[in-house]
Amino acid sequence: HKVKYILVTGGVISGIGKGIISSSIGTILKAYGWNVTCIKIDPYVNIDAGTFSPYEHGEVYVLDDGSEVDLDLGNYERFLNITLTKDNNITTGKIYQKVIEKERRGDYLGKTVQVVPHITDAIIEWVTDVAQIPVDESGSTPEVCIIELGGTIGDIDSMPYVEAFRQMLFRVGSVNFCCVHVSLVPQLQSVGEPKTKPTQVRFEKVDTNGFHCMQKTVRELRACGLHPDLLMCRCNSPLPSSVINKISLFSQVAVERVIVALDVNDLYEVPIRLNDQNLCSILLEHFHLNPKPHIEYPVLGKWKALTRQVELASETVRIAVVGTSNFFFFMFPTMKLIINIFVCN
Fold first, then answer.
1. Which UniProt keywords apply (predicted)?
2. Residues in contact with 98: Cβ distance below 8 Å, sequence separation at least 6, in sequence order
3. What is the pLDDT of residues 312-331, one digit of tens each?
4. What 3-state class would DSSP assign to 303?
5. 3-state class (DSSP) for residue 12
6. I need a labelling partner for 41 at 20 to 30 A (CA). Which of 99, 177, 178, 331 fits?
């Protein structure tokens, strides 16, 4: 069977929540009976996250095969109850290493090795190969592969990947490829209304040093040959229908495919919030897939019970974490991860 690919991209700012949204999409699809795998793309030249300073990049996650990878792969494993390997984490270093090894062996038969087509072909080959690898106890080939592209659209580091997925879309066809774009809809407290321009076009940010930085979103994504099939609007308060209609109009995305991803206190609420907006039905319609036969999938019910339990928790539990003073000053993301793991278990 043909694997369906879901590419998750981000705009406006990095760290917008693509990892949790990717995990939540996978959770919903798996809850409705689809076999899901995940790939995380980190567009840095390092081979893996093992040599990173945790102060700069955060803590690493160690997979069962001993590989040190980005924390998002830990979210994938916990949310979807799957087991991933080092091949589920693509880095620019790995891609270039693979291409250079092939060039040294003479596999390219003396051709000039270039970003296009050799690097882009290597990316597509890696993704399509890993998408076929079973990741759960059933041993079945995945039916859906969710690919999270790190960074933001417009970053020079991400451009080879964006071009590769443009080519991949052309090869597999739009019925087998869905682009989910996560964008910030900022709401200025002094103004009190959501500002849609960052999602429509771009967001211009000037810091105190006058450094001028352009974070590109939908228009830049379309300029690269990819059109968002779904828009995930990150915001801190519900969006009125007028704002959703405006985003739909200027982004050329159907109103029902503009999904509101509100800030939540408990990240395990995200799959439930997205499911309430008929995300699974939208994806199945895009892929021209029929729902699975009449089978009960109680997974989302368990998620609701978990979030309800957290919401109603009244007993205080003390968790001791041992570390140096520098650890506690710099490692706030790690502390959040520890708390989330305790909640999940």
1. ATP-binding, Glutamine amidotransferase, Ligase, Nucleotide-binding, Pyrimidine biosynthesis
2. 122, 126
3. 877 887 877 776 656 555 56
4. helix
5. coil
6. 331
pLDDT number for residue 96: 97
Residue type, 322: V
Q: Which two tokens stand for residue 229?
A: 């099939």
Residues of the chain scoring pLDDT < 70: 1, 12, 187-216, 294-299, 323-345
DSSP for 49-115, written as a single string:
GGGS-HHHH---EE-TTS-EE-THHHHHHHHHT----GGGEEEHHHHHHHHHHHHHHTTTTTPPP-I
Mark out the alpha helices in the chain (DSSP H runs): 18-31, 54-57, 72-80, 92-105, 120-130, 159-172, 197-200, 218-223, 241-251, 270-275, 279-287, 299-312, 325-330, 332-344
4-298: CATH, from 3.40.50.720, 3.40.50.2000, 3.40.50.300, 3.40.50.1820: 3.40.50.300
Domain parsing of the chain, residue ranges:
4-298
Output the pTM of the full model: 0.86
- Token readout for 166 is 């443009």
